[in-house]
Amino acid sequence: MEKIINIDKAKLILKKGDITQEDTQAIVNAANPTLLGGGGVDGAIHSKGGTQILQECKKIRETLYPEGLPTGEAVITTGGNLKANYVIHTVGPICEKGLLDKDKENLLRKAYLNSLKLAKEKGIKTIAFPSISTGAYRCPLNESAKTALKTVIEFLKKENYIQEVRFVLFTDEIFKVYAKALEEIDV
Ligand code: AR6
Q1: Tens digit of pLDDT for each residue in 69-126?
Q2: If you average pLDDT over residues 14-37, what whole number do you get?
Q3: Is 179 in the pocket of ligand 1 (CB under 6 A)?
Q4: Is 42 annotated as catalytic?
């Protein structure tokens, strides 16, 4: 299951898969403010990536973010034992009532955008994202998919640095929602 479109010179790819297996230069982690791990994609990245990632996250907490990483911000560590060289850790919003209101939408947008900006700063040209905030953080899949895709497409249209962005979606159902959302967006 894969869908590929061109945005100027870059490729935008939707695929079904496990993000810990991706060979992009960076993969993005849907973390929480502690940066110390958790369930879902965060748990999978830490367990497959090994302890080096956690050590670096602890360092970041001690130095840059003693009170935790604020929602919408992003930080980078190496990829440990993963194929990817780097992991970009970001925190999406929590949608308590399953609603993506304007504030939450803006925070979700920031999580994608700050991850892309950080990738560019570090010279990363290929990056893979999971569907941030749509698991444990309970944001609605369809609206979150649209926000995610629009944010990435806008960035790729403005910037020529990043060559490939992959959305790595964990189930058939999530893949289908993203594929439909992409069809509904004016690219
Ligand atoms: N590859 C790709 N996608 C995955 C994988 C994987 N290996 N595993 C799960 N997903 P979630 P959130 C999908 O809950 O909603 C953690 O405990 C999953 O199906 O991982 O941002 C953190 O520590 C869903 O579509 O992240 C935080 O506390 C998507 O990844 C909290 O969860 C996001 O689900 C963050 O919640």
Answers
A1: 999 999 999 999 999 999 999 999 999 999 999 999 999 999 999 999 999 999 999 9
A2: 98
A3: no
A4: yes
**Does the beta carbon of 87 lie inside 6 Å of ligand 1?**
no
Provide the CATH number for the domain around residue 119.
3.40.220.10
Which ligand 1 atom is at minimum distance from the Cα of 20? 7
Residue 145: exposure state from Cβ atoms within 10 A (0-12, 13-18, ≥19): buried
- Per-residue CA distances from 35 to 6, 15, 142, 149, 170 (Å): 33, 26, 27, 25, 22
Tokens of 32: 């929480």
- Domain of residue 139, residue span: 2-184
**DSSP per-residue string spanning 91-149:** -PPP-TTS---HHHHHHHHHHHHHHHHHHHHTT--EEEE--TTSSTT---HHHHHHHHH
- For the record, the structure tokens of 11 come out as 């490729």
Contact 50, 84 (CB under 8 A): no
Domain tally, the chain: 1
Tokens of 46: 């830490």
Helix (H, G, I), strand (E, B) or coil at 52: helix
